[in-house]
Design a protein that fits this description.
Length: 201
């Protein structure tokens, strides 16, 4: 009986037991905080890198595909210094104005099956003359003089810590940054022909 009483009143080692209960939760919280902080840092760095690359893309000297590829490669190189295994995609979509780029509205179409996509022979208005229905109303590429360009960089990578796998979630993370810039007025801005109604495949 005296042994049980001594065990009940014993205080030594209580801190160790409490730490053993708290430590796993604390470690999970720290890993989550570091993972979120890394994603935020990566996004901030990407925005800075792409702002410079985007501005350089708007110069007349960067209007060729090879010059744009070189700028994209530089962006990818900078991002991989932070996340070496990242899968990095870049895209450029051009519009006639900032307003159109910001709105990114789909080209008008008859959505007969109400699925939000132009398919199954549905009619659409080819407003930008590229012979395809565009969900964002833009054209692929850098465009020409005075066009507004939406430049986007997306990095996909695995989280630094196995936190999400432990919680039965996805380890894959995706960070994206974009900017809208206008090409230099080195020439007259191009214009689209009158819209023509066509059918989606």
């Amino acid at each position: 009986m005296s042994f049980l009483r001594r065990l009940r009143d014993e205080k030594r080692g209580a801190t160790l037991v409490e730490f053993a209960i708290v430590a796993p939760v604390l470690c999970l919280m720290l890993m989550g905080a570091f993972d979120i902080a890394h994603s935020l840092y990566l996004r901030t760095v990407m925005e800075g890198i792409m702002q410079k690359a985007g501005r350089d893309s708007t110069l007349e000297t960067s209007s060729t595909a090879s010059a744009q590829d070189a700028l994209d490669d530089e962006v990818k190189s900078q991002v991989r210094k932070l996340v070496g295994s990242a899968d990095i995609d870049t895209s450029r979509r051009f519009y006639r104005s900032f307003a159109e780029a910001k709105a990114a509205k789909p080209e008008t179409f008859n959505d007969s099956d109400s699925n939000g996509r132009c398919n199954g022979g549905e009619a659409y208005e080819d407003a930008n003359g590229n012979n395809t229905w565009d969900a964002d109303g833009g054209n692929e590429g850098q465009g020409g003089a005075k066009d507004a360009v939406l430049y986007t960089v997306t990095a996909t990578y695995d989280s630094l810590f196995p936190l999400w796998k432990m919680l039965e979630g996805s380890q894959e993370r995706s960070v994206s940054a974009s900017t809208i810039l206008r090409n230099q007025p080195y020439n007259e801005q191009g214009s689209y022909a009158a819209p023509v109604w066509k059918n989606c495949p």
